[in-house]
Design a protein that fits this description.
By secondary structure, the chain is of the alpha/beta class. Helix content is about 35%, strand content about 15%. The chain folds into two domains: about 160 residues, Rossmann fold, CATH 3.40.50; about 120 residues, Rossmann fold (3-Layer(aba) Sandwich). Strands 2-1-3-4-5-6 form a six-stranded parallel sheet, with helices on both faces. The chain has a three-stranded parallel sheet with strand order 7-8-9, with no helix packed on it. It comes from Corynebacterium doosanense CAU 212 = DSM 45436.
C-alpha cells in the first residue's frame, strides 16, 4: 500500500524540492487545500493544523515545515494531541529557530520546543542550526543541506557591476533604515509599496513568475540578503544555483548554511551595517564568479526523506 504523506505546506519551493519532481511511486502526497477561492495559491493558515480537520481527513505521516506560529502554544498542543489520537507520526523540519515575522519570540520558541520534543523525527538544514536546537531543546536534528531551488540552473550573466537587493515586502526581519541601502549602493527592487524605502528604490516590480525572477536575479553578480534575524534562506540557495554570489548577515545560520557546503560565493557582513555589507559586496565582486563548493546532491536528500517517512510509519 502506498504511504499517504501530508506536507504542511505542500507547494512551498523548499518542500517541493525535497522530493523528486515526479514524486515517489510508493507515496501519495496530499496537496494544499484551497483556503481562499479568491487566492487559490494561498496555503495558510493550513486547516490541517486544527484538530477538527482530522475528524474528516487522514494521512499516514505529516511533515511540518512552516505556517504554525498563529496557533500559539495551546493550539500547537492541540494539534499534536490530535495526531497522537490518530496515531499519525509527525516529521518536523526546523527552518526557523527565530520566526522572521515576529518581534517577540517567546511563544514561538515554546511551540518549537513542543514540536522538537514530540516529533517522530526532526530535520534541519545546517550544522549551526542543529547545534542551537540541541542546546535549546536537548535533541539533535538530522542535518540535510538545502536542496537546489532552480531545477535547471542558468549561467549568471555578466550584467551590472552593482549588487541587487530584492524586497518582496518590508517584513519584520528586513532592515528598514534607508541609510543601510544608501551605504550599500545596491539596486533596490521593491515589490510592495513601503514609504520608508520608496525614495531609495531603483525598481518597483510586480509579482514575478519563476522565469522572470531568475532573469532578474542572474542579471546581478551579487545579491545582498538584508535580514536582521532568521535562520536559513531559500534565496541564498536560489542565488547560488544561478551562479550569483551572496552577502549574508551574521545573524541566524545563513553562514552555516553556506559553510556546510564550503561555498566561496557566500560571505558574511555585520547585521544591519550597510558599510560592512558594501565591503563584502566589493570582495564578492572581485572574486566573481565563485565556483560552487560541495555539490548539493538532491537524490540523497530525496532518499533521506523517503527513508524517514517509511521508518516512522512502520514504527507507529
Amino acid at each position: 500500500m502506498p504511504i499517504t504523506l501530508l506536507p504542511i505546506p505542500a507547494q512551498h519551493p523548499y518542500v517541493r524540492a525535497i522530493r523528486p519532481e515526479n514524486g515517489w511511486e510508493d507515496f501519495v502526497v496530499l496537496g494544499d487545500p484551497v483556503v481562499d477561492p479568491a487566492d487559490p495559491a494561498r496555503w495558510w493558515p493550513h486547516p490541517a493544523l486544527e484538530p477538527e480537520w482530522w475528524e474528516e481527513h487522514d494521512a499516514d505521516v505529516v511533515h511540518l515545515h512552516f505556517g504554525f506560529e498563529h496557533l500559539g502554544v495551546a493550539g500547537t498542543e492541540a494539534f499534536l494531541a490530535a495526531l497522537r489520537r490518530r496515531g499519525i507520526p509527525l516529521v518536523y523540519t526546523v527552518h526557523d529557530l527565530d520566526n522572521p515575522h515576529l518581534e517577540d519570540q517567546t511563544d514561538y520558541h515554546r511551540q518549537v520546543a513542543l514540536l522538537v520534543d514530540q516529533a517522530a523525527h526532526v530535520f534541519t538544514l545546517s550544522t549551526g542550526a542543529a547545534d542551537v536546537v540541541e542546546k535549546r531543546y536537548g535533541r539533535r536534528p538530522q542535518v540535510l543541506a538545502h536542496p537546489a531551488i532552480v531545477r535547471e540552473p542558468a549561467t549568471a550573466q555578466p550584467g551590472r557591476e552593482r549588487a541587487g537587493v530584492f524586497l518582496k515586502s518590508v517584513r519584520g526581519n528586513v532592515v528598514k533604515d534607508p541609510e543601510f541601502y544608501r551605504q550599500l549602493g545596491a539596486e533596490v527592487y521593491l515589490h510592495e509599496d513601503a514609504p520608508v524605502l520608496r525614495d531609495i528604490a531603483d525598481h518597483g516590480h510586480a509579482p514575478m513568475d519563476d522565469a522572470e525572477l531568475y532573469r532578474a536575479v542572474s542579471a546581478h553578480r551579487v545579491v545582498v540578503l538584508p535580514y536582521v534575524r532568521g535562520t536559513h534562506s531559500g534565496w541564498l540557495r536560489m542565488c547560488r544555483d544561478l551562479g550569483v554570489s551572496v552577502a549574508v548577515p551574521d545573524c541566524g545560520c545563513y553562514a552555516s548554511q553556506a559553510a556546510d557546503l564550503a561555498d566561496p560565493g557566500v560571505r558574511v557582513y555585520r547585521t544591519g551595517d550597510g558599510a560592512d555589507a558594501a565591503r563584502v559586496v566589493e570582495e564578492l565582486l572581485s572574486g566573481w564568479p565563485a565556483e560552487p563548493g560541495r555539490k548539493v546532491v538532491d537524490d540523497e536528500i530525496h532518499d533521506a526523506h523517503r527513508v524517514v517517512y517509511r521508518k516512522v510509519v512502520q514504527s507507529r
